[in-house]
Amino acid sequence: MRKNILVIGGTGLVGKVILRILQRRNADYNLFVGSRQSGNTANDLIIDVNSPKTFECIIHNKIDLIVMCTKDSKNEVLQFAIQNKVGYIDITKPTPDLTVAYNLAKANQHNIHSHIVFSSGWMGGIVASLVDCMESDKSKIRETSLYIYYSVKDLAGKSSANFLAENVCKPFVVYRNNEPQKVKHFLNSEKFDFSFGIGKRQAYNLDVPDLFILNQIEKIPTVSVKITYNSKFITSLMGYFQSLRIFNIMSLRERQLMFGSSGNGDQTVFEVVVKTQDKTKKISLQSVKGQAELTAFSTVLHIEKMLSNTLLKGNYFSHQIHSSQEIYEALESYAAINIKTS
Question: What is the pLDDT of residues 174-183, one digit of tens each?
Fold first, then answer.
């Protein structure tokens, strides 16, 4: 039977790429686009995440799976999916929103009769799968670190920029030996030698959902995330602004402009380092088409798994629905992605 997939936020940057990759890989999927504006075809649905009355078209069009590519801070779509037994995957939630949504789904787990998948970790939620590639026995892992190379030349959606603009002055939690420690973005720098010709860069604190996922779900005692920009000057400027509390006196609009990316496309790179008692292992991943392509491709892998009829109904993080080998092999075979291990 043909599967009906609804991408809410399908007119946005990542949503468009998800639709493109799905169309190329799965010609038998029937794809719908949900947005607040009316479209030109019968598959363009008017959906406002803050207006549940607009969700009736989901039932009318017999949607099998909802893909959330836009912010749903009240979790109206999540609750609708659970109540109506519709599959659901979200790739948009920052850490605070993710914990709320996960707890909501967990509280309703006895009423879940579809697949509810949270995939808001870095680049479509693939970091935990890569950690599992390096060490499947999480009890052996003492520390996991994620290092991100971000280019302001890359195409980027508004959600991550807006999150940083809204939260750059607020502390967030990292974990040291299972003790939560409050830190701030763009402080506590360390030098890291990035792969793919980037070289040594200062990298600063960043809040991404993998902090919560790797410690609270996978029970890894020490977890940290650091980011560097393609411009060493911009990286240093971020640290300077935070240390001198300049972000505190900037308006929200000024911070949004500062964190926004208006490039035409560039590579994105991230590296995952796993330390056990006697070994240090690293996976380095480069997407030559940028972060939107990698996030979208990762999301498509999750969608395909959810529709494969091999997954029990229930509440998941995206890394829990695959074997790590499946994810690694899929990434390695994708033309725009390069992987190195050491």
Answer: 999 999 999 9
Residues 302, 283 within the same domain: no
Could you tell me the sign of the dihedral formed by the alpha carbons of 19, 23, 27, 32, in that order?
positive
Three-class SS of residue 295?
helix
Dihedrals φ, ψ of 318, to 5°?
A: -60, -35
CATH number of 323's domain: 3.40.50.720
3-state secondary structure of 143: strand
Residue-range definition of the domain harbouring residue 245: 125-290
Q: How remote is the C-alpha of 313 from its chain's centroid? A: 22
Tell me the pLDDT tens digit for each residue of 223-273. Answer: 999 999 999 999 999 999 999 999 999 999 999 888 876 677 899 999 999
CA dihedral 128, 130, 133, 138 (to 10 degrees): -30
The total of other beta-carbon atoms located within 10 Å of residue 182's CB is 9
How many domains does the structure of the chain reveal? 2
Q: Where residue 191 sits, what CATH number does that domain have? A: 3.30.360.10
Q: Burial letters for 293-320: b for 16+ Cβ neighbours within 10 Å, e otherwise?
A: bbbbbbbbbbbebbbeeebeeebbbbbb
pTM > 0.90: yes or no = yes
Looking only at Cα atoms, what is the longest distance across the chain?
A: 59
Neighbours of 265 (CB within 10 A): 15
- The conformation of residue 120, written as its DSSP 8-state character, comes to -
* Helix, strand, coil percent values for the chain (each to nearest 5): 40, 25, 35
Using alpha carbons, list the distances in angstroms from residue 25 to 80, 100, 338: 28, 33, 20
Answer yes or no: do 18 and 116 share one domain.
yes
b/e sequence 151-165, b meaning 16+ C-beta within 10 Å: bebbbbbbbbbbbbb
Same structural domain for residues 91 and 189?
no
**Beta strands in 197-239, from DSSP E residues, in sequence order:** 199-205, 222-229
Residues in the chain: 342
Place of tokens 């892998």: 301
